[in-house]
Specification:
Helix content is 3%, strand content 36%. It has one helix at 384-397; strands spanning 27-28, 31-32, 50-52, 95-100, 112-122, 160-166, 169-177, 179-184, 189-193, 197-201, 206-211, 221-231, 242-246, 253-257, 263-270, 272-273, 276-277, 295-301, 306-309, 317-324, 327-330, 333-335, 339-343, 349-354, 359-366, 373-376, 379-381, 418-420, 426-428. A hairpin with a 2-residue loop joins strand 21 (327-330) and strand 22 (333-335).
Length: 430
Amino acid sequence: MAGEKDAETPLPPGGPPPAHLNRRALLLGGTSLGLGTALQACDSGPAPSATLSRAGPARPTAAVPSAGSPPPVRGSADPRPADPTSGAAPSGDPILGLVRLGAPPWPTFDPFLFCVHHRDVYPAGNAALGPTESLAGRNIGQDFGGKDGWSMYHGDVVPGFPRHPHRGFETVTITRRGYVDHSDSLGATARYGEGDVQWLTAGSGIAHAEMFPLLDESSKNPTELFQIWLNLPARSKFVKPYFAMFWNGQIPKRELVDAGGRGTTVRVIAGNLGGERAPAPPPDSWAAQADAGVAIWSIRMQPGARWELPAAPRSTERTLYFFAGGSLRVAQRDVPVQTAVRLRGGPSVLLSASGDGDVELLLLAGKPIGEPVVARGPFVMNDMAEIAQARSDYQRTQFGGWPWPKEDPVHSRDSGRFAIHANGKRERGV
């Protein structure tokens, strides 16, 4: 285990890290902890920490640069409007600012920590569920380059993210195409995809693997997903780890048609919309608090469609990510694709789609937790003492050990969509 490549723990899903970053930057008892692309360590100095006060206006939850640390990822630490002529939002304007998305991860605001959008068009799968094409010319173990339209990330044989730990927050993984094979240190395992969502409360600590098996042997394997990190308040950072599966057929979908007959479809992953209520989040999630107002919605608008994003409490942080499609107008402002729109809490906001293709949006909204955030790699806590404790605990316990024969386990090609929880509960995808 100590020092061996197969024992390294990788980055959580994220965008391409700068070339000078190294997975071995944080060593715990011979096991290296990969650092998320928003919160990375630098070879030339200690891993940076992020200490962000949540008093006053919310700011992006990215690492604050320190001596020897890399500059912030583009778009993840600068809330200024993408359009320099826009200036301060006038009174009554629901838009607080625009941020170009640029390279992942996307900018996020309290209570969210991290958001990344993976899109890969993998070749046909081989017998090991990896790509049939040669891996020559790739930086195997840290392949984020998107060569030929796909990346291996930290996978050697199968693309994805072998064993890595988390503490102090939650991951919400929203699949759109392709599959994820999950295995964790508590003995739980799953295969989900094609619209399914996994919501994982890391709490006191868990290690898991997230691999992308290529199941189609005869044609391409497109894979697309979002991974979102949602913070936990101090009182919940040491709760027991827990994961819930929201199978595609269980996620409510709201179909809306405007006066011109053009449609908008909203998948309600968290929160509720017009009587459509999402499945219950894990019990210790910030989203489970009655007054937190957490909403995660996937929105698709036909060209020419008009729809009013509903009103939200004034305490709510709202960010609308326009990541694909034609053209979008938000209230009275035209917004270019690949833009995050920060919205005030309060009244409803008119969205108007135009152009040649459907407009696709992701909404993240919620009441800020309003606590200090200290982040180092895979751990997000409230102070540096808790970060040190997380490192010590992982070195000592490995957050339950690793009951799987490999760091990057995958299931058989014909396994189907399923989940086996740590308590033995079994589910089949619907």
